[in-house]
Amino acid sequence: MPWIQLKINTTGNDAETLSDALIESGAVSVTFQDTHDNPVFEPLPGETLLWGDTDAIGLYDAETDMAEVVAMLENEPLLGKGFVHKIEQLEDKDWEREWMDNFHPMRFGQRLWICPSWRDVPDPTAVNVMLDPGLAFGTGTHPTTAMCLEWLDGLDLQGKTVIDFGCGSGILAIAALKLGAAQAIGIDIDPQAIQASRDNAQRNGVSERLSLYLPKDQPDNLSADVVVANILAGPLRELAPLISVLPVAGGHLGLSGVLASQAQGVAEAYEALFELDPVAEKEEWCRITGVKKA
């Protein structure tokens, strides 16, 4: 079953109160994670041991309107309006274990393979992206990532510029570069994603052609021949005015992170400026693609 997680940084003193607020907002579970991944000692009986810097992570059904959740949480005294948070689709944990334990290289489209470093490359003449699981989302196992990779493989990227909006691990930008793109630009709100993308680009020998930005640092008037955004339905709708201006006239747009029940609403946010293709669907998730109108 698909899920969405909401991550909020807090302190050990406030974590329990924030947990109650997350449950009241519709979270089916809340977990705490040490922001700095520091080791901790076993708590005493009945004690909940939290860290000085704690991430509270709420898990929500993927159908949840996260804009409503955020609006509800903005009324909490601990948070307030505009509080810093991160929303992301959750990788299936069984897939994650499968990747770590006995995953084999995966093929997407006709030319592209995603290969973990501990496996031999099945076809040295193919387009091979070496990628291991890490700090940021995106290894190819999730249907949304898979559909985006297949779409990129089907495009003529030779000499093109590609923007990966919400780049995560950098998998889509790196794949585009290895498929022939001249340059790629990755944008993400998470500094860990920027670092993961940079590391993965270096591992694949394309770091000199990949520029990475947090939103506050990205240059004005960015544009590209191809723009891909594998995030979530809510942000895709809300950020449509920003994402829509990125492709040049005649440029390609690919959107994913969208459930089948959400596809129409997302498509409607872009149809005025794009000639949209039929929606592609895989395991409850969808991909929306199109070409920018002149």
Automatic annotation (TrEMBL):
Q: What is this protein called?
A: Ribosomal protein L11 methyltransferase
Provide a GO CC annotation, any one.
ribosome
Q: Which domain of life is it from?
A: Bacteria
* Statement: the UniProt record of this protein carries the keyword Cytoplasm: yes
CDD domains from the entry? AdoMet_MTases (cd02440)
Family membership, please give it. Belongs to the methyltransferase superfamily. PrmA family.
- What NCBIfam families has UniProt attached to this entry? prmA
EC code(s) of this entry: 2.1.1.-
Q: Which UniProt keywords apply?
A: Cytoplasm, Methyltransferase, Ribonucleoprotein, Ribosomal protein, S-adenosyl-L-methionine, Transferase
Q: Which organism encodes this protein?
A: Ewingella americana (strain ATCC 33852 / DSM 4580 / CCUG 14506 / JCM 5911 / LMG 7869 / NCTC 12157 / CDC 1468-78)
Bilayer-crossing residues are: none
* General function of this protein: Methylates ribosomal protein L11.
* Subcellular localization: Cytoplasm
What GO molecular functions are on record for this protein?
A: protein-lysine N-methyltransferase activity
